[in-house]
Amino acid sequence: MTAASKNIQEQGDQLPPLEKWNPEFCGDIEMRIARDGTWFYGGTPIGRPSMVKLFSRVLWMEDGQYFLKTPVEKVGIDVDDVPFLFVSVEQREGEKGPELVFTSKTDDVVVAGEQYPIRVEHCDQTGEPSPYIAVRFGMEGLIARNVFYELVALAEEREIDGVSHLVIESQAIEYSLGSLNES
Questions:
Q1: Which helix or strand (DSSP H or E) is residue 141 part of?
Q2: CA R_g for the chain
Q3: Which of 106, 119, 124, 167 is least buried, going by the fewest C-beta atoms within 10 A?
Q4: In the prediction, which pLDDT does 12 show?
Q5: Could you give the CA distance from residue 72 to residue 25 in angstroms, rounded to a whole number?
Q6: In whole angstroms, what is the distance from residue 157 CA to residue 2 CA?
């Protein structure tokens, strides 16, 4: 099985047991994750992907705030929207039928389904969609625009509560990408 085809549940050996660690809060550090998935330290982008991946593995969320967490300390960081950016999707056949397998910029792999649902928000002013998928520990990832277009291409038109929607399916669960405007 390739790394790209492993579900995040199968990646447990790569993730430390953050849920078991309860360190003291040590304050905030000048680290930020931009909406496009770029990690910054002191206002400068972190250029080493391996360092970003390491930080992403100790990322934790409590009460809507983000932290880097180790067994001995917990430091606060800023996140513009959500901490993960999903940059690819693969459709494959699974035990429950078609599955959508997403891979993030930090190599997290998530199969959309009951444990990792997809949701789409729409901007009140522009109507522009922002698609998200659950990742771990209550955190989510933004689905990149090009990946969202791939989902739209895979979607089928279905009626939900009397309104036409673009719908995709993964692990026998349907997700609306949005309603279709009537002309």
A1: strand 140-143
A2: 18
A3: 124
A4: 46
A5: 9
A6: 33
